[in-house]
Amino acid sequence: MPVREMSEHECLQMLAAQHLGYLASARNNRPYIVPVHYAFEAAKIYGFSMPGRKTDALKDNPHACIHVDDLAHHDQWRSVLIEGKYTELPDTPEFHNERIYAWSLLQKHDLWWEPGIFKPNADGDVGAHTPLFYSISVDEISGR
């Protein structure tokens, strides 16, 4: 399969069609990457998470990168990379509408809360923390 650059339109179509990506962040000069379910709309990626290492890193350094791939076969694949800025959507009047919007997009997909909900605390109680929603603006996009 010859490798070629995807157009921005092709990249955006792929983002809309897929729902699993890998969110990368950096904190204290250390990279961190995790799988996330997402929804894409209006030049933003929307996601859901429990508080933890990922969200702490993104609060300290809001520059984020998301990788989304579509692997049909070892010689038949597509890959999109997004660079953007993380914004937490707290349960406050200021973010209420965007938070509800994020939830409305995410809940259209099966298992949208996984793996974000699986963040047990020290005694294993998943419900001990308040889940959060976030967005990542699409500042730069590329694909092959």
Summarize the structure.
The protein is an alpha+beta fold. It has three helices and eight strands. Strand 3 and strand 4 (44-49) form a beta hairpin.
Q: Can you walk me through this structure?
A:
By secondary structure, this protein is an alpha+beta fold. It has a single domain, classed as Pnp Oxidase, Chain A, CATH 2.30.110. The protein has 3 helices and 8 strands, in the order H-E-E-E-E-H-E-E-H-E-E. It has helices at residues 8-17, 53-60, 96-106; strands at 20-27, 30-37, 39-41, 44-49, 63-73, 76-89, 132-137, 140-143. Strands 1, 2, 3, 4, 5, 6, 7 and 8 form an 8-stranded antiparallel beta sheet that branches. 26% of the residues are buried.
Number of strands: 8
Q: How would you classify the helix and strand content by structural class?
A: alpha+beta
CATH fold category name? Pnp Oxidase, Chain A
The count of helical stretches stands at: 3
The number of distinct structural domains comes to 1
CATH class: Mainly Beta
CATH homologous superfamily - what is it? Answer: Electron Transport, Fmn-binding Protein, Chain A
Radius of gyration: 16 Å
- Shape from CA axes? globular
The largest β sheet comes out as: 8 strands, antiparallel
- The proportion of residues in beta strands is 35-45%
**Secondary-structure element series:** HEEEEHEEHEE
Helix proportion: 10-25%
Instruction: Quickly give the CATH architecture.
Output: Roll
- Given as residue ranges, the uncertain stretches (5+ residues, pLDDT < 50) are none
State the end-to-end CA separation.
11 Å
Mean pLDDT: 87
